[in-house]
Structures are given as C-alpha cells and as structure tokens.
C-alpha cells in the first residue's frame, strides 16, 4: 500500500460542496483500485462494486429509480444506511451502460454519498457501445505508474524525498538521489513491480511479474479489437511498441510490419485510449497556445520505462552507464522525462508536445515544450556543452522570453548564455531526476532572473 499523490487530490474532491461523481482513468494495473482502498479509510462506510462480477452488475440492470437503486446496493452488501460518510466505488463501470447513465443522477440527487468509478478499458468500450458519461455531471482524474517522487516514498528514502522536494535541490544531494533515480528508471513505476522490489530487493525476481503484465495486456486484446483482423494488428502493436518508444514513428509498416497506415493507426489509437501508449505530436508554436500538428509523425510514449527495459532486454546493461543520455541512443532519457511530465497534472489527460521547425536545409527539434503562464518553455534532454543546443537556440530566437531548461546527468546549474544569433537567455540545467518538479523550477528560474 503505497502513498500516491492522487490520494491528496481525492481528499480535496471529497470536501467540495459541489462535488461531482469521480471517474478515475488509467491503464490496467497502475493502482486505481488500491488508491481508492487507501482513500476509503477516510469514510465511515465503504461500498465496493465490481461490475465484472455478475451479481454486482445486475444491480443496475433493472433501471431502478435512484432512491431504490441505493437501497438495492446497501441490501446487496448487507449494509444498513446510517449517519456518517459513505464512499461508493464502482469498478469496471464500462461493463454496464446503465451504471454510466446513473452517474448523472448520483450528482443531482445523492450528494450525501461520495461516488467514484473506474475502468481500465473505459474509452474503448464506451466508444464501441456508443455510451458516454453525462457532460458536466462528472469529474475526471488520471492515474499513471508511480512517479519518481512516489517511488522514493515507497522505498522509504525519506531523506532523499525531503531533498528532492527542496527547491533548489542542494548540490550535496545529487549523487544520492541520482542513484535512486537510476534504480527507478531500471525497474519502472508499476505498483506490483515496486511492491515486490521493496520486499525482495532482487531484480531477477521481477521477471515473472513483467511477463505477467505483458500477458495481461495481450489477453485484453480481444476486448480492444473490433474483429479478428484488428486483434492481430493490436497484438503486434503491443509487442513492438516498447522497441519504438521514444522515437518518432510512422503508422505505415509500424514495427517492421506489412500493415497499412489505416489499420495500424487504428490499433495505436486504440492502445492510446487504453492508456498503454501516448502519441505525442509536434508543434511549431513558440507562443501559447501549443497547437499540435496532427499531420506530422508523432513520438511514441509507452506506459512505463521499466516495462521497456524488460521487453527490450536492456536491464543487464543498466549498471554500465552513469549517463542515461549515452544509453540506448538517448531514447531512454527522453522517455523517462516524458513519463514524469505526463504524470504531473492528474486532473486532465496527459499530453506533452515537442517543437519542430522543418526547412529543406535546416531542421530543428526540441524534445519537449511546456506551457507556463504567457510562455512556452523549451526543454532539451541531453548532455553536452550549451553552445551545441542548436534547436533550442532556434526556439529561443523566435520566442517571447529568454528562458530554457536542459535535463542532463549533471547537477543543477543556472547559466547566462546566448543563441547563435546573439539573443541572450538563461539556461537552467537540471539533473534528470527533477523532471517531475519542472514547474516548480520554472517558477524559481523566473523569480531569480
């Protein structure tokens, strides 16, 4: 039972006077049910319904009025209504269109009951069955694998966690926190993996768990696919996505296949709805808003870096490098940064973008761009001298501010620099492990300038 940041958000949701039913979204096995179980300790009564179970799903099949439905739920769980707070959690809600429909009435007529729901295949099943949650009557939160901050809490590295949350992070903490970060990058953030690791501290014991996760995702394919042909295409997409993670991809022939763009695009977008992958599209924006260009090739973000290491068989090489950017062509460093950035805001679906400038003789690409107030902040993930950051320079020359961030294998540094065209700017170099705190450091950078 790990601390998850979402529990603090759940507590704030519970205290709202105009509270709406909550829909918790995330890939299978990222810890949604466990987080609700921990949160349920705040309540006098906790009612858990799993709509994969026939007896729980049948409660919603009779189209009862809300008052009678609530009584039927209490009766099915042999619970007597009484004073105090009640949390009702409806798991795998996508299995019952009627349960989805009732979310509206829970909001309008049952404000004394805290209602939350979740489902790993929510978007896929709801889209296929042409049902939807009532607009404006529910609130969403999003769950991902454990972040590095949550990992530090899980392994009980209290001192490192305290220093990680100190802005600016003191230089003497760099070596200690980087060591933890490398271990996090190695095993990833899937809760079952971290639970086993904290108990056994044996990397080799994690192999059957990684394999079990892959098997469970492949077993879900039939739930994703609309027919037997798409079943095979989606299986191929799942099995080859880890090898393409961190790279810009084309749908046509994805994963060295003979599949066409149309069918592979459908497969990859299906996996994105299941939150197993993310397709990050480029933008040419240098001022807000960030407008992604869906005509360009996206970069593929996989669910979890630890899963990539296992599937691609990189774990044995992990101890041979001190700089993630020199490892696996730099893709892994970019990928773990992307994973941390996606998980920052749990109240909206994670989507980051990167910046491109495509000219016949002068292409440029910045790894990530982040909206911050009236600015778009460029973020590069690489080692090397500041003078070599040519793409970042091109972005700065076109932007309305003089701030940039580099994530690398070194300590925190703030440098006054200038672009190749002579525009002065401030470069904040941060160790990789501070990617999840990037908004705190952008604010610090601007205040210090």
Protein architecture, described:
This protein is an alpha/beta fold. It has three domains: 5-142, P-loop containing nucleotide triphosphate hydrolases (Rossmann fold, 3-Layer(aba) Sandwich), CATH 3.40.50; 148-279 and 294-344, no CATH class; 354-448, no CATH class. The chain has helices spanning 5-15, 32-39, 54-57, 66-76, 97-109, 122-129, 148-154, 158-164, 174-187, 191-200, 207-219, 221-224, 228-244, 261-273, 305-311, 331-342, 390-398, 438-448, and strands at 22-25, 45-50, 86-91, 113-118, 139-142, 277-280, 282-283, 299-302, 353-357, 364-372, 375-381, 403-408, 413-418, 424-431. It has a seven-stranded mixed β-sheet, sandwiched between helices. A five-stranded parallel β-sheet has the order 2-3-4-1-5, with helices on both faces. Helix 1 packs across helix 2 (32-39). The radius of gyration is 23 Å and the shape is globular. The mean pLDDT is 91.
